Amino acid sequence: MTSQKQNVQTDGSIPATRDKNSVKFRGGLKFISSLLLPFALGIFTVGVTFQQQSAVKQQPAGPRKTSGAAATLAQVEILNIFRQLDAHGNIRAIRFLYEAKQRTDTPENRSLDLSTAELSDIDFREASIDKRILNDLLLTDVFLSNATFIGIKMAHVNFALAQLNTANFSSAGFNNTSFASTPLSNTIFADATFKNVNFSSKNIRGVNFTRSTLVHVDFSFSMLYNVDFSSASLTNVNFSHAQLINAKFPSATLKGADFSNAQLTNLNFTSTNLILSDFFHANVSNTNFRQSSCVASKFNYASLSYCNFWYSNLKYAVFHEAYLNQANFSRANLYKSDFTSTNIMESELKDALSTEDAVISNGTIVHDENLINEGQTDYSISHINGWTLSNGNVTPVISNKSGSNCQVTLQSLYWSYCVPTCQFIR
Ligand SMILES: *[C@@H]1O[C@H](CO)[C@@H](O)[C@H](O)[C@H]1NC(C)=O
Ligand SMILES: *[C@@H]1O[C@H](CO)[C@@H](O)[C@H](O)[C@H]1NC(C)=O
Ligand SMILES: *[C@@H]1O[C@H](CO)[C@@H](O)[C@H](O)[C@H]1NC(C)=O
Ligand SMILES: *[C@@H]1O[C@H](CO)[C@@H](O)[C@H](O)[C@H]1NC(C)=O
Ligand SMILES: *[C@@H]1O[C@H](CO)[C@@H](O)[C@H](O)[C@H]1NC(C)=O
Ligand SMILES: *[C@@H]1O[C@H](CO)[C@@H](O)[C@H](O)[C@H]1NC(C)=O
Ligand SMILES: *[C@@H]1O[C@H](CO)[C@@H](O)[C@H](O)[C@H]1NC(C)=O
Ligand SMILES: *[C@@H]1O[C@H](CO)[C@@H](O)[C@H](O)[C@H]1NC(C)=O
Ligand SMILES: *[C@@H]1O[C@H](CO)[C@@H](O)[C@H](O)[C@H]1NC(C)=O
Ligand SMILES: *[C@@H]1O[C@H](CO)[C@@H](O)[C@H](O)[C@H]1NC(C)=O
Ligand SMILES: *[C@@H]1O[C@H](CO)[C@@H](O)[C@H](O)[C@H]1NC(C)=O
Ligand SMILES: *[C@@H]1O[C@H](CO)[C@@H](O)[C@H](O)[C@H]1NC(C)=O
User: Fold this and answer.
1) Strands (E), 314-378
2) What is the pLDDT of residues 51-85, one digit of tens each?
3) Which residue stretches of the chain have pLDDT < 70?
4) Does residue 375 lie in a domain region?
């Protein structure tokens, strides 16, 4: 790391105290090395490829194994080259090595190994094919600062144990990529797309996933501070055993998220769609679920302290044995929700918009009052305080349970509230 810092300094801003001859000499060296670079890399690559091929030929039956010495030599040589060049030279070197690998190696083993390199200010668009594709890259344990990956599609890239500082991955695409044990700080993944990605890391700070799309992403056992998932779409994302502090999810859509055993503090789930999420045994505190949709989500054995479910849609949500300390269910839709064996009193649910067919702590099923009096013709006014029809439709339907009673359902984008004495259509 020390040598890297020195190099960055000599390549970038040379201290004014150095004499001019030294500057000229270094400039000359840099020029010569940039001329010789492709040549040197060419010989080096041919050499390594030859050694690899002969190593493979010598052991046709056994597992494919490159000569350890050649690989080590290659790695040392690559790291040496990186140390001697500035950012532009490094970009050219990476591109050269990458293309050579893509051309000469078998499809199963095209991975270019840049592990343990220390690289600053690299724009990987310049190092990739067509500025868009970068597959099969081993970046384990690399130190990358101010790296740019904007709009690049990546598959089989391994960032495990890498250190990334202020990297920009806006609109990038990731397939089968690992960020396992990778500390991330100030990393931008806005509008990025992820599939089969592993983010299991103890140190993720200030990372921005705004408007990104994540499918089969693993955050289990990770620690996330100040992470922004606003308007993101998360499908089968695993936060099990993770610790999240100050994470933002406003207007995000999560399908089948696993928050089991997670520690969630100060989260913003305002207007978040949390359908079928699992919060089993999670410790959730000071979290805002206002206007969220948690239809059929499970909160079994969860601890929910100071959580606000104001206007949230909790149809079919299950809270078995949950600990609900100062939770706010005011104006929530608790239709068919299940509070069996919780510490919540029926009176604490009285401000809910609906508790129709909900199961309260002692296992009793409760019902709402009728919203509209029998024979009432103006459906826009309810006789129960707090119910006014501001927008949405009131639909009178003839009940098939009893010919005389009518059913009225109020429907808007997220809600569907019903007149209790009748049958419900959802
Ligand atoms: C691919 O090459 C690397 C070294 O570059 C080697 O360690 C690995 O075993 C090779 N894998 C296969 C499947 O040949
Ligand atoms: C980051 O790297 C880019 C090149 O990719 C460069 O133009 C920019 O000046 C660098 N920013 C900082 C703060 O060093
Ligand atoms: C990251 O890249 C995106 C897309 O080019 C750009 O809009 C954004 O400003 C960049 N962010 C930073 C911090 O450089
Ligand atoms: C992942 O790979 C699949 C199949 O090769 C492809 O259809 C998809 O676009 C890729 N996704 C990303 C994010 O690169
Ligand atoms: C990604 O990896 C999984 C197994 O880890 C594999 O089944 C799948 O085919 C891979 N996808 C691509 C696009 O290579
Ligand atoms: C993600 O990486 C961690 C650490 O290497 C590993 O334990 C975990 O199994 C990986 N997750 C997946 C889904 O492969
Ligand atoms: C994340 O990036 C978006 C723009 O892409 C920005 O509006 C938002 O403020 C950023 N979030 C944080 C926490 O900085
Ligand atoms: C999430 O990850 C945990 C720990 O790795 C695992 O036990 C669990 O089955 C995963 N959840 C899902 C839904 O795959
Ligand atoms: C949650 O996010 C929403 C939308 O960004 C914002 O209006 C609200 O103030 C936030 N709530 C808290 C408690 O930070
Ligand atoms: C839940 O987290 C809070 C801090 O956020 C902590 O004080 C409390 O002990 C935790 N409860 C359990 C049961 O782990
Ligand atoms: C519940 O939250 C709403 C909205 O934040 C607030 O207006 C109301 O006073 C809260 N109710 C209680 C009982 O704290
Ligand atoms: C359950 O609790 C409710 C309200 O607290 C009460 O009216 C009802 O009788 C209880 N049922 C049983 C079976 O204890």
Assistant:
1) 323-325, 358-359, 365-366
2) 444 444 444 433 334 755 666 667 777 788 888 88
3) 1-65, 67-73, 369-426
4) no
Residue 8 lies in a domain: no
Question: Are 317 and 300 part of one and the same domain?
Answer: yes
Shared domain check, 333 and 184: yes
C-alpha angle with apex 26: 25 to 31, nearest 5 degrees?
A: 100
- Give, in degrees to the nearest 5, the angle at Cα 196 between 287 and 142: 95
Query: Do 272 and 254 form a contact (C-beta atoms < 8 A)?
Result: yes
Determine the structural domain holding residue 186 and report its residue range: 104-366
Packing angle of the helix pair 87-104, 20-58 (nearest 10 deg): 10
Q: How close is the Cα of 126 to the center of ligand 12, in Å?
A: 69
From atom 11 of ligand 4, which residue's Cα is the shortest distance away? Answer: 175
How close is the Cα of 198 to the center of ligand 6, in Å? 6
Query: What are the strands, taking DSSP E only, across 4-103?
Result: none
- 246 occurs within a structural domain: yes
193 Cα nearest atom in ligand 4: 13
Answer whether residue 352 is part of any domain.
yes
Within the chain, how many helices (H) and strands (E) appear? 5, 24
* pLDDT tens-digit readout, 388-408: 555 455 554 443 334 334 444
Per-residue b or e along 101-126, where b marks 16 or more CB atoms closer than 10 Å to that residue's CB: beeebeeeebbbbbbebbbbbbbbbe
Distances (CA, A) of 3 to 79, 88, 157, 332: 11, 18, 26, 59
Contacting residues for 90 by C-beta, under 8 A, at least 6 apart: 82, 119, 122
Q: How far is CA 171 from CA 61, 250, 276, in A?
A: 43, 20, 28
Q: 91 in helix, strand or coil?
A: helix
Q: Same domain for 86 and 175?
A: no
At residue 64, what are phi and psi to the nearest 5 degrees?
Answer: -65, 120
Q: What is the pLDDT of residue 107?
A: 76
Residues 88 and 182 both lie in one domain: no
Quote the pTM value.
0.80
- Do 97 and 157 lie in a common domain? no
Q: Which two tokens stand for residue 325?
A: 């300390």
Residues 411, 287 share a domain: no
Shared domain check, 152 and 48? no
Ligand 4 pocket at CB < 6 A: 153, 173-175, 193, 195
Q: Total structural domains in the chain?
A: 3
**CA-CA distance, 181 to 153, in Å (whole number)?**
22
